[in-house]
Design a protein that fits this description.
14% helix, 2 domains, Pseudouridine synthase, 229 residues, twelve-stranded mixed beta sheet, 39% strand
Length: 229
């Protein structure tokens, strides 16, 4: 594994580059500035490079780039079908009694506030027929992995396995169940014990668009998370 200014390249072939992005780094540049991003760092090394999917700035973990536009399109146009597994580790505020759960809601993104909102699914609703045209179906499997206390505050580590990949999905679903992700003040968190959003893209597997092989990747937990007992 190569490491370059905290952006770790975990896989590379003729078509793809898979990296582990640190928390605090943008995936691509915004219109507001020219800060260093995962995209700009890879562009320095590979020249033209294309992002396939995104993580929030403060989410760490696995991220896929394509070396050419054709590969990017091949993955993006079939991303939901190509992805076999995408698991995240999140540390939520509070104590959660259930060992496992399943969350499904409608989601709506307000383009003015950039906030994503959840709405309850009603009897008879189906993923293919949202009540409103701009609502999207979102579903997450979750499993409790451990509990701990920091400075008197209780936290629960949860593994999320996504069925859909909506913007801010885990952050909003965590708020929806009344247990925001630690450090996520945008979606209701009251504490920040790690000095960052406690969300990490842990595992990703997908079908390679050209070889047809199953590609499996796993990123270690950030040290700041794993030090907690």
């Amino acid at each position: 594994m190569r490491e370059r200014q905290e952006l770790k390249i975990v896989f590379e072939d003729d078509w793809l580059v898979v990296v582990e992005k640190p928390s605090g780094m943008l995936c691509v540049a915004t219109d507001k500035g020219r800060e260093i991003t995962a995209h700009s760092m890879l562009r320095e090394e590979f020249g033209r490079i294309f992002i396939v999917h995104r993580l929030d700035r403060d989410t760490s973990g696995l991220l896929v780039f394509a070396k050419d536009e054709e590969t990017k399109r091949a993955l993006q146009e079939n991303w939901e079908e190509a992805v076999l597994e995408r698991k995240y580790i999140a540390i939520l505020e509070g104590q959660i009694d259930s060992e496992e759960g399943y969350i499904e809601t409608w989601m709506y993104e307000n383009l003015k506030s950039l906030m994503v909102h959840c709405y309850e699914m009603r009897p008879g609703d189906t993923p293919q027929k949202p009540p409103r045209k701009d609502w999207k179906y979102a579903s997450s499997h979750c499993r409790k992995t451990r509990e701990f206390t920091i400075e008197g505050n209780q936290y629960t580590e949860v593994e999320f396995n996504l069925e859909t990949g909506r913007r801010n999905q885990i952050r909003v679903h965590s708020q929806w169940i009344g247990h925001p992700i630690a450090g996520d003040r945008k979606y209701g968190a009251q504490t920040n014990p790690f000095g960052r959003l406690a969300l990490h893209a842990r595992a990703l597997s997908f079908i390679h668009p050209w070889t047809g092989k199953e590609m499996k990747f796993r990123a270690a937990l950030p040290k700041v998370f794993s030090r907690v007992k």
